[in-house]
Design goal:
By secondary structure, the chain is an all-alpha fold. Helix content is about 70%, strand content about 0%. The protein has eight helices and no strands. Helix 3 crosses helix 5, helix 4 runs antiparallel to helix 5 and helix 7 packs antiparallel against helix 8. The protein is elongated and about 90 Å long. It starts with 13 loop residues before the first helix and ends with a helix.
């Protein structure tokens, strides 16, 4: 009887399994969104932040008033004030959350373009890392 050659079995460790699972774009997206909700969810439910109080003061009164107030103010974007004036409701109980919509849309657009830039410049898989580091 010929001797059997023993080939070493490849043992998968937990860290290798986790790394392989996190390499999947859908799992990485789910983990990133879960972390964002956990870290930023409580902050989004709070009242005005300092920058949103400034945005409310500049954008209140409509697009023309936002343009008039923002023009001499060098620390604020004129375009952002005009866009935010559409979301600026004075008597609404959800005023704080509604006024955050333009900023959150800008954050999402910045993450998307950073993702695309990193994928093109560095290579496959770099986009999620760049967007996640930018987000947190």
């Amino acid at each position: 009887m010929p001797p059997q050659i023993m080939t070493p079995r490849r043992v998968k460790t937990v860290s290798q399994s986790c790394a392989r699972a996190l390499a999947s774009p859908s799992v990485l997206l789910a983990v990133t969104l879960l972390l964002a909700v956990i870290l930023y969810g409580r902050l989004l439910a709070r009242s005005f932040w300092v920058d949103e109080a400034n945005t409310f003061w500049l954008a209140r009164g409509g697009p023309l008033a936002a343009l008039r107030k923002t023009w001499p103010w060098p620390g604020h974007s004129i375009l952002f004030s005009i866009v935010s004036s559409v979301f600026c409701f004075d008597g609404n109980p959800y005023r704080d959350q509604i006024l955050r919509i333009p900023g959150l849309c800008g954050l999402a657009a910045a993450c998307y373009f950073l993702y695309r830039f990193a994928e093109d410049a560095i290579g496959r898989g770099a986009g999620w890392i760049a967007a996640t580091l930018f987000l947190f």
